[in-house]
Amino acid sequence: METTMQRGSKIILFVVMSAIALIQIFPLIWLINFSFLKSGDFFGSSFLKWPEAFQWKNYADAFQYGRVPTYFMNSMFVTLTTVIISAVLALMMSYAFTRMNWKLKVPTMNFIMLGMIIPIHATLLPNFIMFNKLNMLDHLFTLIIPYIAFSIPISMFIMSGFLETIPRVIEESAVIDGAGVFTILFRIILPMTKPAIATVCVLNFITWWNEFIMANTFLVSEELKTLPFSIMKFTGQYSSNYGAQFAVMTCIAIPSILFYLLFTEQLTKGITAGAVKG
């Protein structure tokens, strides 16, 4: 049976963890709260204000003046394309590095992993010059290509660690039954690596959904811009429409949160599994 001290320790731990969780989610609560206020209600000493009437017009203005629907679909296309292609490439490359023996395997893997220490924005100018010479500027794939390139190192790092926990005897049995490499990879390994795939998908989604500097450099056409550009629409005559600006920021934040919550369980398994080998 639990002693009084043990129960007290659990209560204290629960209170502390609840306080930390509240601190973590407070910016989101504050963001959503202010997205329903009138612009005149923003000034004051209160951190949170209950709106006298929920200003759904803020979201209507966000969709109309911020062009949220168009930019949202562009962001979704760029991010999901990046996430899917990166996950597939990372799975195939990780399998080649962890299961196959070939010359220069170790140097090649180390070279790819160097990408983890290079920030993507350090390549902004070289990419701009290269894409400009290839007449590829102002196209969504101009964003997707570098996004995929910088997603692969961290994706491979997580995927390789997870693959090391899968017994090789499973694949050996499949080979004896006549299965080829792609059959083993996509019909046996793929279902078993769902936690790792979910992990890399969530990390890459959150990273590229909010990326702005590369998009601002490479995209010019209004029809191709991504969701972070919506907040820039509220300048000039719309600069005082604070409610709509907070509504736009809420629209930007919610998809990442939902994507994370959808794969929380798989994400936890994927991160912890790679730490256990043998």
Protein model, in words:
- With 278 residues, the chain is mainly alpha-helical.
- The protein has a domain of 177 residues: MetI-like fold (Orthogonal Bundle).
- It is built from twelve helices and no strands.
- Helix 1 packs across helix 11, helix 3 packs parallel to helix 6 and helix 6 packs antiparallel against helix 9.
As for the CATH topology of the domain at 69-226 and 255-273, it is MetI-like fold
Strand portion, in percent? under 5%
Report how far the terminal alpha carbons are from each other.
36 Å
Shape: globular
- Percent helix among the residues? 55-70%
User: What string gives the helices and strands in order?
Assistant: HHHHHHHHHHHH
> What top-tier CATH class of the domain at 69-226 and 255-273 fits best?
Mainly Alpha
Rg, nearest Å:
23 Å
Biggest β-sheet: count, sense, barrel? none
**How many individual helices?**
12
Report the CATH architecture of the domain at 69-226 and 255-273.
Orthogonal Bundle
Low-confidence stretches: 274-278
Tell me the name of the CATH homologous superfamily of the domain at 69-226 and 255-273.
MetI-like
What is the β-strand count? Answer: 0
Mean pLDDT: 83
State the secondary-structure class: mainly alpha
How is this fold's topology laid out?
Layout: H1 4-34, H2 57-65, H3 68-99, H4 105-113, H5 124-133, H6 140-163, H7 169-176, H8 181-192, H9 194-209, H10 213-218, H11 242-262, H12 264-273
Helix pairs in contact: 1-11, 2-11, 3-6, 3-9, 6-9, 7-8, 9-11, 9-12
